[in-house]
């Protein structure tokens, strides 16, 4: 068996690599056979070979049908390999890919969060436009999933769907908006990534999350941090005022303070992100903090060095330009000057950049150190010309040493190294083009006899010719020297000396006529025809044509503008630091310009976080604060806890729970008159938000409710605001609570205890409240009565143990159960050890009518939800008798919106359920969970 | 972020390709190969290349390039850092990141890359979680897999991704609980011709090999934490406690990781433990080299693994050198002169003497090449950093703890 597998595994591949074209059909047929076999390890082996081919860039799309069959395999490895294949080829084989979708849909409902997560991940990676609606539904579900991991995967899925179907933008933005409010740092980074990919310009969505994002920054994963800081930079530049003009906004201070510790990150991307944040947003005085971190990055690999140096060069380049900020750039990198010294092991690009930075850092205080260093570089063959150029830049930057630099350059001109001479010449020409001191020209001329390199000699002649008016008395002597050895000079020098001759002819004709003619005569019979041509041309121009000779002055003596020295890094300043566009110095796809600071910060109340006044629930409030603090510090958080999965889950539940509580407490306030007035007064304290932005949709809706007169107006104002589904729902108190009890166990069954059940219908997160009522009908006290559930998976909160049930007493016990929206009947046990052993199991099924909770929706929202829940989600149920409207809220926990419309949501998954009484006597149920809708409607038809 | 990734070797073969979004044909690499051909050495290839429709970001390591294809604006350092993280991960998985290991483990690399990125955005980069998802291959497991038909993919679902300590695996168990800390310092020095120090700084790391069961919470205190003014931390270190108390407090990842790296700048005086006296004359006639290496301020510790390297200019044809100790080799093609000295005994500074033959065509004297040094000193860090104590909370057992100090030469250049 093993031998067979091994035999198949290797030799063929080698042949294929050797370049021999194999018959594809024959080769794939054995792979197909392996995939069709019923042995898992054969299949895995085949898949491995297929993936190997994919990795090598070979086309194996022919195998699609054979592979996709295995998508539901039990073997984890096989499954994973099939997923990898599927994601790669689904785009090309769209119809066949559809076959696999149902597998993922099933997995999306799996109780295990990791399976749900990976199913969503693969499903959304399949690039088949036909599946887009299914993906959208899956994402919408997943962003409200209990598990933060699934929510994270959902955030990742959003950009995938968007690239597949950009039309869905509006709905996806809703999802992002929802995710941005997530408290788990695991989710937050990915949510920001999705935001950045889809709607980077919708900064208005960030207002209410801004502060939470700042505080959460430290706990987000490294990659999320990078995206987040970049996004917050853009936000700050759009919404907050320039901190250099007047006192900095508190929000800017918050942002900078939360980002500052990240300068210590091990991830150079994060450090760069913080750097650019400080560069673009922080007050100038704080800039110096980033220098140390940037210099530390220079220890990294060559690629990192390259990008970082590029950015440092830009920072250095900008600052000298702006008056007043000059000093900052000095103090910023001055202490680290030596870090920019070139090492022999640096790559050549890094060397060049280091030289550039060195020269832009040059100042009177450090010029001597830098010049000495540059002199060493001149002797290094690969750096020599760049170093010479750098010396030239030093000369321009620091006037005091320009003389010294020029002297150095002039000596370099007579060096034996061709490269050095070349660049020295170029630099000297550039430096002296506009203006040359006579003394320097004189020195050059004195050096002339000793100069060997042709370029150097030509350069001197060119310089003298250019500035001939300043050295009128010396120039003829130079021409004389050249004329003496004219035939031995290089072609380059001859051409330049012809130019000099012409110029002398123009200004000192009387003295030099003879010599000029002599030079021309020599040039006329020169060996090089370039020289002969030039000579003929000039002769004709000057001596033979009258008309042209008249204009000779304009032709030869025209002033040429000196070449301006502009660094390429100055241009780069238009791009955001640390961006790809900046490195390439070109506008990349999807690059967003960083706007200038606005004159004034936008209203800080926009950024107020939507925290509910929680007077009624002080405990909860405290707990929450604790939690928040934990998150903030992040350090203490993990202290001495054992963070197994269980705890995590618990935590997430708790969090969600407290969210719910918040909402609840708000309602409670609303129902309470006193509280309401307080609520209003608070609202009047804060300036009313501008109408175009939904600062806190919940609150606004409440306002509408508390002041019915103005509700119309409010709704009008909110017309173009898109509520995310969860935001606008408002959980209300039940309209009716049943007081009668349903008996589950009578005295005989319960061995002396009568057990009955009641549904208090209170709102408590995803939990369904249940009240057990126990009556001791015996004449003895019963101790340690306990109601136990057999299912360990079931999440039950509350005490189900009664230490003493006195004789004849009646005790009621409230518990909360997260039923996960399922009406499965479960087994419970009533037990007590003494005085007589009681052990009675019973089955309990909690009807759907109690698993829902009433919610209120405004009319437009209701309309939207109703139209959304069409098709399979809608059920019609015939009512045998006319329905008594008043009884509906009794038999199901619904909220009455209208005479014949009732709304609720399921407690666990928050699926909306709309019950409508139609005129023909039928009951229409629209619900995300069609089964629940149908059963609720059925119950109503029977009981009301 | 990333659209595609190609692993390419220096001779221009694509070893592996992986696409996270739509497939981009491998001909995109041609833009890169063009520039690679122009560059004198692989290090000189520009790391970021712009092509008409895509942007290429490459990272070079051990004769291999990782070439990422990007279609839109993205922070380049994010990509570069990620690519280096990929290299790190692969190195840890296969003990080596090279042409042959990549070809051998093609499928595994492919699967790893699939886990690390989702739609081109980093998803799982923590080594501990990845190891949970895909077990690293080792010799024993390979044999066991062959026999039992099991695979490297873990059967159980990894839970690490869910924890709020994403860097640590759940349920770690060891029979011997031990934690080793290596304090390593590298000295970067440039010494000029006259023997005076132009530039010297220390780059330090604390590398940890942690084999502790459960969820240990470690606290490390240093004797002189003020030395560290420029530190970067592994995400596990609690930043606030460092800020306030200068104590390193952390729940470590399982296995090997770098706890902190620090940088001590040139302002502080750095004691350089070695000196080189040199006379190098590269002349067509009578070219000679004379080198003496000796310890300096080494605080009584022995210099080990001393290697001296000179990259000779092209005109050098051969070297005829005799050392008093160690071995000398000269490669006429790469022009690398290597003097492997080994241990330097106190009081007997080794010397290297001899002639150099130079091709006469080059004419004149050429520049002197810089000397680079490598060495190691055990049981000493130049900065004087010292671990005071190490405490563990959260677990009951008593771990074995060890601290080792090493000083190494970093980029140690002597100009001649």
TrEMBL record, chain A:
Phosphoprotein is among the record's keywords: yes
Start-end of Acidic residues biased regions: 617-685
GO biological process terms on file: intracellular protein transport; vesicle-mediated transport
Keywords for the protein's UniProt record, in alphabetical order: Cytoplasmic vesicle, Golgi apparatus, Membrane, Phosphoprotein, Protein transport, Transport
Limits of the AP-3 complex subunit beta C-terminal domain: 711-824
SUPFAM superfamilies tied to this protein: ARM repeat (SSF48371)
Record's compositionally biased regions (Basic and acidic residues): 699-710
Bilayer topology: Peripheral membrane protein
Annotated region (Disordered), positions in chain: 596-711
Highest rank taxon of the organism: Eukaryota
UniProt family annotation: Belongs to the adaptor complexes large subunit family.
Name the UniProt record assigns to this protein: AP-3 complex subunit beta
Organism: Caenorhabditis angaria
Automatic annotation (TrEMBL), chain B:
Protein's name according to its UniProt entry: MHD domain-containing protein
KW Protein transport (keyword) present: yes
CDD domains reported for this sequence: AP-3_Mu3_Cterm (cd09252), AP3_Mu_N (cd14837)
InterPro entries, alphabetized: Adaptor_comp_med_subunit (IPR050431), AP2_Mu_C_sf (IPR036168), AP_mu_sigma_su (IPR022775), Clathrin_mu (IPR001392), Clathrin_mu_CS (IPR018240), Longin-like_dom_sf (IPR011012), MHD (IPR028565)
Family as reported in the entry's similarity comment: Belongs to the adaptor complexes medium subunit family.
GO CC entries: clathrin adaptor complex; cytoplasmic vesicle membrane; Golgi apparatus
Membrane spanning stretches: none
Organismal lineage: Eukaryota, Metazoa, Ecdysozoa, Nematoda, Chromadorea
Key words, A-Z: Cytoplasmic vesicle, Golgi apparatus, Membrane, Protein transport, Transport
Keyword Transport: yes
Residues of the signal peptide: none
A biological process from GO: intracellular protein transport
Entry membrane topology: Peripheral membrane protein
Domain MHD positions: 176-415
Location within or outside the cell: Cytoplasmic vesicle membrane; Golgi apparatus
């Amino acid at each position: 068996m093993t031998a067979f597998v091994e035999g198949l595994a290797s030799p063929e591949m080698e042949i294929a690599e050797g370049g021999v074209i194999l018959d594809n059909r024959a080769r794939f047929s054995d792979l197909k056979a392996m995939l069709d076999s019923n042995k898992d390890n054969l299949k895995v082996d085949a898949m491995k070979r297929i993936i190997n081919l994919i990795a090598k860039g070979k086309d194996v799309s022919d195998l699609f049908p054979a592979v996709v069959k295995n998508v539901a395999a039990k073997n984890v490895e096989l499954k994973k390999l099939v997923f990898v294949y599927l994601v790669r080829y689904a785009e090309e084989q769209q119809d066949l890919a559809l076959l696999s979708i149902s597998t993922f849909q099933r997995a999306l409902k799996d109780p295990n969060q990791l399976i749900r997560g990976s199913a969503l991940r693969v499903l959304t990676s399949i690039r088949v436009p036909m599946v887009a609606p299914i993906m959208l539904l899956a994402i919408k579900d997943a962003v409200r999933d209990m598990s933060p991991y699934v929510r994270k995967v959902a955030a990742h899925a959003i950009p995938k769907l968007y690239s597949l179907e950009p039309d869905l933008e509006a709905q996806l933005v809703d999802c992002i908006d929802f995710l941005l409010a997530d408290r788990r740092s695991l989710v937050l980074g990915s949510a920001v990534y999705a935001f950045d990919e889809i709607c980077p310009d919708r900064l208005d969505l960030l207002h209410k999350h801004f502060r939470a994002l700042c505080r959460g920054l430290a706990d987000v994963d490294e990659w999320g941090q990078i995206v987040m800081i970049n996004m917050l930079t853009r936000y700050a530049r759009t919404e907050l005022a320039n901190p250099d003009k007047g006192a900095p906004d508190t929000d800017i201070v918050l942002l900078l303070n939360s980002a500052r510790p990240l300068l210590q990150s091990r991830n150079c991307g994060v450090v760069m992100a913080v750097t650019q944040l400080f560069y673009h947003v922080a007050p100038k005085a704080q800039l110096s903090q980033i220098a140390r971190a940037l210099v530390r990055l220079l220890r990294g690999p060559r690629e990192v060095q390259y990008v970082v140096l590029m950015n440092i060069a830009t920072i250095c380049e900008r600052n000298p330009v702006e008056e007043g900020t000059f000093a900052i750039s000095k103090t910023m990198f001055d202490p680290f000057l030596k870090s920019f010294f070139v090492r022999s092991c640096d790559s050549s690009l890094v060397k060049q950049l280091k030289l550039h930075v060195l020269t832009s850092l040059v100042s009177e205080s450090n010029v001597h150190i830098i010049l000495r260093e540059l002199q060493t570089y001149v002797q290094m063959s690969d750096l020599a010309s760049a170093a010479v150029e750098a010396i030239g830049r030093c000369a321009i930057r620091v006037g005091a040493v320009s003389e010294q630099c020029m002297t150095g350059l002039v000596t370099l001109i007579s060096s034996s190294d061709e490269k050095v001479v070349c660049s020295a010449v170029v630099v000297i020409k550039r430096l002296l083009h506009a203006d040359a001191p006579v003394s320097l020209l004189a020195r050059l001329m004195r050096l002339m006899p000793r100069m060997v390199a042709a370029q150097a000699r030509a350069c001197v002649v060119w310089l003298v010719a250019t500035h001939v008016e300043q050295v009128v008395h010396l120039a003829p002597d130079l021409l004389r020297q050249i004329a003496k050895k004219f035939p031995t000079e290089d072609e380059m020098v001859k051409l330049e000396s012809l130019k000099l001759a012409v110029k002398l002819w123009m200004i000192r004709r009387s003295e030099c006529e003879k010599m000029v003619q002599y030079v021309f005569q020599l040039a006329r019979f020169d060996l090089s025809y370039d020289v002969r041509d030039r000579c003929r041309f000039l002769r004709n121009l000057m001596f033979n044509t009258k008309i042209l000779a008249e204009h000779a002055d304009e032709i030869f003596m025209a002033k040429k503008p000196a070449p301006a020295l502009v660094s390429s890094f100055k241009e780069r300043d238009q791009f955001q630091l640390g961006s790809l566009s900046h490195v390439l110095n070109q506008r990349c796809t999807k690059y967003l310009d960083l706007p200038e600071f606005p004159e004034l910060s936008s209203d800080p109340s926009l950024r107020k976080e939507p925290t509910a006044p929680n007077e009624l629930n002080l405990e909860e409030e405290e707990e929450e604060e604790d939690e928040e603090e934990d998150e903030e510090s992040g350090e203490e958080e993990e202290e001495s806890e054992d963070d197994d999965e269980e705890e995590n889950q618990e935590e997430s539940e708790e969090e969600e729970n407290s969210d719910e509580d918040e909402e609840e407490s708000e309602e409670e306030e609303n129902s309470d008159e006193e509280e309401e007035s307080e609520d209003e007064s608070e609202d009047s304290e804060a300036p009313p938000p501008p109408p175009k932005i939904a600062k806190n949709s919940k609150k606004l809706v409440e306002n509408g409710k508390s002041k019915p007169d103005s509700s119309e107006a409010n709704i009008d104002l909110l017309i173009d605001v898109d509520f995310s589904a969860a935001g606008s729902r408002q959980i209300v108190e039940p309209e009716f609570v049943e007081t009668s009890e349903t008996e589950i166990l009578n005295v005989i069954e319960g061995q002396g205890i009568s057990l009955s059940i009641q549904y208090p219908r209170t709102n408590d997160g995803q939990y369904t409240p249940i009240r057990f009522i126990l009556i001791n009908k015996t004449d003895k006290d019963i101790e340690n009565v306990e109601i136990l559930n057999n299912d360990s998976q079931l999440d039950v909160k509350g005490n189900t143990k009664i230490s003493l049930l006195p004789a004849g007493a009646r005790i009621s016990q409230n518990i909360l159960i997260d039923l996960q929206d399922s009406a499965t009947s479960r087994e419970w046990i009533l037990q007590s050890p003494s005085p007589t052993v009681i052990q009675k199991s019973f089955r309990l099924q909690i009807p759907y009518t109690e698993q829902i909770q009433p919610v209120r929706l405004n009319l437009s929202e209701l309309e939207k939800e109703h139209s959304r829940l069409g098709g399979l989600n809608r059920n019609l149920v015939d009512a045998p008798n006319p329905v008594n409207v008043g009884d509906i809220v009794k038999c199901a926990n619904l909220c009455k919106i209208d005479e014949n419309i009732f709304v609720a949501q399921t407690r666990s998954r928050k699926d909306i359920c709309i019950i409508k009484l139609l005129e023909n006597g039928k009951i229409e149920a629209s619900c995300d969970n069609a089964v629940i809708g149908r059963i609720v409607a059925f119950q109503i038809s029977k009981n009301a | 972020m990333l659209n595609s990734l190609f692993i390419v070797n220096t001779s221009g073969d694509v070893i592996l390709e992986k696409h996270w979004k739509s497939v981009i044909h491998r001909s995109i690499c041609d833009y890169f190969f063009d520039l690679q051909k122009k560059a004198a050495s692989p290090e000189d290839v520009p790391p970021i290349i712009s092509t008409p429709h895509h942007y290429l970001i490459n990272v070079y390591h051990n004769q291999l390039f990782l070439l990422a294809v990007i279609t839109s604006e993205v922070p380049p350092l994010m990509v570069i850092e990620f690519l280096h993280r990929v290299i790190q991960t692969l190195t840890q998985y296969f003990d080596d990141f090279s042409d042959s290991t990549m070809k051998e483990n093609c499928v595994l690399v492919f699967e790893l890359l699939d886990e690390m990125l989702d739609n081109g955005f980093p998803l799982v980069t923590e080594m501990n979680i990845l190891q949970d998802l895909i077990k690293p291959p080792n010799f024993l497991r390979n044999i066991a897999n062959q026999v039992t038909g099991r695979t490297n993919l873990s059967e159980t679902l990894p839970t690490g991704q869910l924890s709020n300590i994403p860097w640590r695996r759940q349920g770690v168990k060891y029979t011997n609980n031990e934690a080793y800390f290596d304090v390593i310092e590298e000295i970067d020095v440039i010494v000029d011709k006259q023997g005076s120090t132009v530039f010297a700084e220390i780059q330090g790391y604390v590398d940890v090999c942690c084999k502790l069961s459960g969820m240990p919470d470690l606290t490390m205190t240093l004797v002189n934490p003020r030395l560290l003014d420029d530190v970067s931390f592994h995400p596990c270190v609690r930043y606030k406690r460092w800020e306030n108390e200068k104590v390193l407090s952390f729940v470590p990842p399982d296995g090997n990781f770098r706890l902190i790296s620090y940088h001590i700048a040139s302002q502080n005086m750095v004691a350089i433990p070695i000196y080189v006296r040199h006379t190098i004359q590269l002349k067509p006639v009578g070219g000679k080299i004379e080198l003496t290496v000796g310890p300096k301020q080494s605080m009584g510790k022995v210099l080990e693994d001393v290697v001296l390297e000179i990259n000779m200019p092209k005109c050098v044809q051969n070297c005829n050198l005799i050392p008093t100790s160690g071995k000398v080799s000269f490669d006429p093609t790469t022009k690398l002169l290597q003097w492997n000295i080994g241990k330097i005994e106190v009081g007997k500074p080794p010397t290297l003497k001899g002639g150099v033959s130079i091709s006469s065509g080059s004419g004149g004297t050429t520049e002197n090449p810089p000397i680079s040094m490598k060495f190691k000193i055990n049981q000493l860090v130049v900065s004087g950093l010292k671990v005071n104590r190490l405490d563990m909370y959260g677990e009951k057992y008593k771990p074995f703890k060890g601290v080792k100090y090493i000083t190494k030469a970093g980029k140690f250049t002597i100009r001649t």
